Prior knowledge:
Blueprint: E1 9-18, E2 25-35, E3 40-50, E4 54-57, E5 63-67, E6 70-82, E7 86-100, E8 103-119, E9 122-132, E10 135-136, E11 142-143, E12 148-159, E13 163-174, E14 179-189, E15 193-202, E16 211-220, E17 223-231, E18 239-247
Antiparallel strand pairs: 1-2, 1-18, 2-3, 3-6, 4-5, 6-7, 7-8, 8-9, 9-12, 10-11, 12-13, 13-14, 14-15, 15-16, 16-17, 17-18
Amino acid sequence: MLPFFEGRLDASAAFQLWSPSAAKSSNIAAGVAYKFSERVGVSLGYNLQSGAPYEVEDYNGQITGTFGPKSHVIALGAGFGIGEHFGIGVNARFAAQKPSSDLSYNGLSADLFVAYAVNNDLRFTAGVSTLGTSITAYNKKKYAQPASVKFGANWGISFAEVNRVEVMADFDYYFSKNFSAAIGAQYDWNKTAFVRMGYRYSTPYCVIPSHLAIGIGGKFHGFRLDLSYLTASPALGNTLAIGLGYSF
Length: 248
């Protein structure tokens, strides 16, 4: 969607308490997107997930210290406009995970998407996500990354000059024969205050399970503050995220 971004630069950072009632991990993320011209833009993103530390024992059962699992993801992307209505985007990603002191995994993946903007109020996207290398586990078995075919749509309407409502939906069909579908809505008052709600349904073996999300946000002179809360999920219940951003 970068070619349709009305500004020149967008940067943000976020902190998330991920599934505190279950996994008890945290995420720190940062990203920036920049448009070199009216129809060409690039993006860079990074995410660090830190798991709850656990005690490490030697072969005699003696505690020798603690270890905190960590995962890293870095992504590079580019978007290109084709005429007035089409855009194409590519994204390359490197992910690494260290669940214990003697185990580590890493892999490469990529996304390819096409976007079509009917007008400023109606847009569609379609593409493939997370096509990448297989991951070799400690038992020497190889596992595929969660690649999927994705479709999305965004529709908005403005009224009474300062009010706008947007509805977004997407659908993923994973090559593992699982699928997920999500729908969300946002109310925007004067491009200053935002209220959001969405629900995601996932089959049991999807990467992200079913959940309900609610959020609020504010924007002033290009600066943004966003809060979101996930619930209605045994795995993700009470997940809280706060984000800061700036755009022009």
